[in-house]
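Thread: "does anyone have the structure for this chain?"

Original post by V.I.:
We have the sequence but no experimental structure in hand. Need at least a predicted one for the grant figures.
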Amino acid sequence: MSVKTKQFTIHEDWTVVILGFLIIGISLFIFLPSVPVFKWSNLTDLQNDVFDFGNLQILLLQFLYFISIGTIGVFLVGKSVKNFLIVFPLVYLLTFIALIIAGNSVLKGFNLEAVIFSLILGLSIGNFFKLPDWFRAALSTEVFVKIGLVLLGTSVIFSDILKAGSLGLFQALLVVLSVWYFAFWLCKKLKIDDELALMISSAVSICGVSAAIATSGAIKGDAKKLSYVISIVLVTAVPMMIFMPIIAKYFDFPEEVTGAWLGGSIDTSGAVAASGTLVGETALKISTIVKFSQNVLLGLAAFAISVYWTYNDNTLSATEVSKPTLGVIWQRFPKFVIGFIGASLLFSFLIAPEIRNEVKDSLKNLQGIWFALAFTSIGLETNFKDLLSNTSKKPLYAFLIAQLFNIIITLLIAFLLFNK
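Reply from O.Q.:
Generated one for you, tokens below.
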């Protein structure tokens, strides 16, 4: 009689914390990855700088570095290492092409970042070619995004958090409460079932995919409904990520206000980071802090939702629903936020300024590539047809109307709190 051993796994959020600090440790104590050249103005620059043999060596080492870190992550979360090793080279190749496109000086003049081209390339491949299910399953979007966010913590010094953190948390409370209530009220008016209404309300008001997943977990939600909500979140995040920075620049919003607006209204952490980079360093930091302030509320929201569902769900007995305990709050809390804060504290208080200055460019490059890899993956796994597969369009309308309300109310609150 054979005994089947259970595969060792670590929760995805703890995995990205481990990997983020592994990358930081390597950069501080072992070797500092060189920053490759992607900037070019003409074909001569492209040939002599980007495709220079020395630069190609750096890119090859970078590929080996990323696939090694990614393989460790995939192994720790219990996904197929074999499938990852097959899929990742394509993801990296598309991301590499996106980085080259974004390196063009003309496009840089329009503030078009690599994440946008990564997304476009991924969407093109993912929607014009039928990718097998195992291929999509091997994509590690959330891992890539969260590693980038942990690394982003190295650039957010504690004094910046003190400046914007309390305001960010206050804004998050106002936005989450007002938008969640409006979205849920709207869903009920449109006669959308409670399960889907809760997922939509949480996704649009808190932090998109993570909030939808946490809500679904708290209420033992239908996986198909969850998939539908996630598809809406991912697709609507794309135009918001691109056009909100453009609107902010057109109307000359202050960077602090823009960052707070982006962080409070865009639903996915990666899209917030990407849109923040389109505006500037200050906007990126403020948007990240505001988004993390919302993430902090995710555990509390899951707790409140589980309480609501326990006493209002008539289809399940109380014992079948997750009990509202402190354990539920901790379980739903996005642990990668701890990594972000830890990295910020480390670089704020324990790393000497001269060392910080020495490693910041390399870490920023690594952070940017993780984001670009994530958005290539988002493009590959996002199918626009998913939005049309639901027979009723009411959930889509509810999400879009609630998102518009979110954009408007968050902008007003951002001006009230962050306009100097």
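V.I.: this helps a lot. The chain is about 80% helix and 0% strand.
O.Q.: and Confidence is low (pLDDT under 50) at residues 1-5, 316-322.
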